[in-house]
Amino acid sequence: MNLSQLYYFRKLAELQHYAKAAKELYITQPSLSNAISSLEQELGVSLFQKTGRNIHLTKYGAEFLAYVNKGLEQIDKGIAIMKNYAGTGDGGKIDLGCIITVQTDFIPKLLNGYKAAAGGVAFNVREDTSIPLVKDLLSGCYDVVFCAKGNEDPDLAYVPVLTQKVVVAMSSDCPLVEKEFVTPTDLLEQHLITYVDTIPLGRAVRRMLDECGIKNVEYSYLDESILAGFAANGVEAAVMLDTFLLRSVDDVVVRPFYPSALDRRSCHHRVYMAYSTKNYHPYRVDHFIQHVIETKALKPDPNACYID
């Protein structure tokens, strides 16, 4: 048995068609067939079964494939590491996704710092909301994403890297404008607007407001710009995060939000680096993840409240 046979087997298992697999492997179909036959003879089991013009894995082939995938993954990773040590690697490319509120400041600083330290790496950065980011991360479209924390998933790891403060935005005519800060008691009689509760951030805000007994809330909006716009030009106050989108709206008044008049800890929502614990990571992706963990991972602040 040799390494080429295992690569051939993996490709044939993926495509389940000899001609297509041989074409992608840049070998002849007879060469592929001979390699698989030799592998089956050595193992003493049939790995594939014909179904018309196609083939499919036998139960033995399916079980063997799991071991082959794990083995070749480690070999590929080792080769990549050695090439980087030797300076013969191409540096690699990292597909990164992020929510809009971190793409103008946090992400550029992070990536520029990593490039300065590691060099020779390219990033493909795309922006989206948290739910599709996580979905595409699990499907392999991204190597790593920066997003709000969603539901627990055994195939995901979340590392907190950034906090965004919870505030109350309002117009200059709002009754709350005279206050230095706002507490849940101040909001009991106030008509509020905030994020739609089908997104992780909206669910977190809803949990916080429900725990405070605040009921007169409209959960309808996706981002800070529209929340701040309505708050600055209407009677509603907006419970939201203090991001650059909020600061881009004219005439909006912002007050900090505290758990109570006595407990003046700031309330924060955290942004996380998320990555798959199941998908294969090239050496450069693992190196970047470790860099973020070592340089950006946050420890809980006893002087802050977290709503995520």
UniProtKB/TrEMBL annotation:
Family: Belongs to the LysR transcriptional regulatory family.
GO-annotated molecular function: DNA binding; DNA-binding transcription factor activity
GO cellular component terms, semicolon-separated: protein-DNA complex
UniProt cross-references to InterPro entries, sorted A to Z: LysR_HTH_N, LysR_subst-bd, WH-like_DNA-bd_sf, WH_DNA-bd_sf
SUPFAM superfamilies given in the database record: Periplasmic binding protein-like II (SSF53850), Winged helix' DNA-binding domain (SSF46785)
Protein known as: LysR family transcriptional regulator
HTH lysR-type domain boundaries: 1-58
Keywords tagged on the record: DNA-binding, Transcription, Transcription regulation
Keyword Transcription regulation assigned: yes
